[in-house]
Fold this protein.
Amino acid sequence: MQAYNLETSITALKNLRDTYQSQLDTRAVIELNAVITELEVVSRQEGTERRKAACVRAFYIFADVLRVIINFRDLM
């Protein structure tokens, strides 16, 4: 993931957390915070395996949060 995309992902995850925190369970918020922290740490490490793993983890958390948001909206 390019540096710009990584920063955009961090910002997007923070916005998701801030906007939907009340609709997420504690486990999801903890995981989201952990992913944000990990991405911030690895943002300075070009091409490392840890950075690649953090980026994949970020995509999974995006999917999980979006799934919760979509399911929640379907119930309304």
User: Anything to note?
Assistant: The helical segments are 3-20, 26-42, 49-75. The chain has one domain: 3-75.
